[in-house]
UniProtKB/TrEMBL annotation:
CDD domains: AdoMet_MTases (cd02440). It holds the Pfam family Methyltrans_SAM. Residues 25-309 form the S-adenosylmethionine-dependent methyltransferase domain. SUPFAM superfamilies: S-adenosyl-L-methionine-dependent methyltransferases. This is Methyltransferase. Gene3D superfamilies: Vaccinia Virus protein VP39 (3.40.50.150). The lineage of its organism: Bacteria, Pseudomonadati, Pseudomonadota, Gammaproteobacteria, Vibrionales. The keyword rRNA processing applies. Keywords: Methyltransferase, rRNA processing, S-adenosyl-L-methionine, Transferase.
């Protein structure tokens, strides 16, 4: 990366904070490679906390310059008017992605708001805070298209899709994820939004050993598949996605729909279109959801892909 590009980074942040977002928002997405010299930096606004993530190790000179520019931001009127109270730098290239507090006093457990819904976040423990901001439009679509539907949420993580679906009027959501701690956070997210938990199920199981249980709880009007690109000993996208696709017809209702997601820069939309045609030809490709504009990418195929399929 380039030290001379850091001024542009802070200028962009300052411009966006002149009318600060009232909800969670990415302010800068260097990973989209649209700004030369800033390809390994992202900046998120957590309603008062600025979280700057560095994805590749840089020399001390660059890190010191980054810290200096960010500290200068805190002296400007725009920062106080935006009610900024902390700046964190997350070193994603290091083991466990440690986060340093550059300025202020951090809130490790902030409650973030997106599309009017509340989510419990957690900073400084893992790489990810509990909500992937590039999926904002996906959750919004689910919220707007769940009325009266039974929903299956695979690889549920902290149940963001589930929260959106229940808020949108879903009659039932079944969440499945091997990480029981993530599902527990999902319960917290529903409670934050005063949802009726009798409509929500949390299954801490291995998907590939749970088809019978899932079928008994179905059929589903909407199935959401948002897997990790790779999860050691449990999921490899290029090998295992097809195993899920071929099961879909047995789980869906007669007019069911699928939201299938891929978030690997190495895997294109065509991977899902071809996979569905081969494994579940009853389902037709409808289209791809747009990504939020703040996640602009020089190559759209390298960003998040959220694809709709239906009978």
């Amino acid at each position: 990366m380039k030290i001379e590009a850091l001024k542009e980074l802070v200028d962009r942040i300052e411009n966006l904070l002149s009318e600060p977002p009232k909800e969670l928002r990415r302010l800068f997405h260097g990973r989209g490679q649209t700004v030369d010299g800033l390809e390994q930096i992202t900046v998120d606004w957590l309603q008062g906390q600025l979280v700057v993530a560095v994805f590749k190790q840089q020399d001390d000179h660059f890190i010191q310059a980054l810290e200096s520019e960010l500290l200068a931001l805190t002296t400007r009127d725009v920062w106080s008017k935006a009610e900024g109270y902390a700046i964190l730098i997350q070193h994603r290239y290091q083991e466990l992605a440690p986060t340093q507090v550059l300025w202020g006093e951090e809130n490790v457990y902030p409650v973030g708001v997106e599309n009017g819904l509340k989510y419990q976040l957690e900073l400084k423990k893992n790489q990810n805070m509990g909500l992937f901001l590039d999926m904002r439009y996906g959750r919004k679509w689910v919220q707007e298209n769940s009325q009266g539907k039974s929903v299956l949420n695979l690889f549920a993580y902290t149940c963001g899709f589930s929260v959106a679906a229940i808020e949108g009027g879903a009659t039932q959501v079944v969440n499945l994820d091997m990480a029981k701690a993530s599902l527990s956070r999902g319960r917290d997210n529903h409670r934050l939004n005063q949802h009726d938990l009798s409509k929500v199920k949390f299954l801490g199981h291995d998907l590939f050993k749970s088809w019978g249980k899932l079928k008994k709880l179905g059929p589903y009007d909407l199935i959401i598949i948002d897997p990790p690109s790779f999860q050691k000993n449990s999921f490899v996208m290029t090998q295992d996605y097809q195993k899920i696709l071929r099961r879909l017809p047995s789980l869906l209702s007669a007019s069911g729909e699928v939201l299938a997601c891929v978030n690997s820069p190495a895997i294109s939309t065509q991977f899902l279109i071809d996979g569905m045609a081969a494994e579940a030809p009853e389902l037709q490709f409808i289209g791809r959801l747009e990504n939020p504009p703040e996640f602009e990418d020089i190559d759209p195929e390298k960003g998040l892909k959220v694809m709709r399929f239906t009978y």
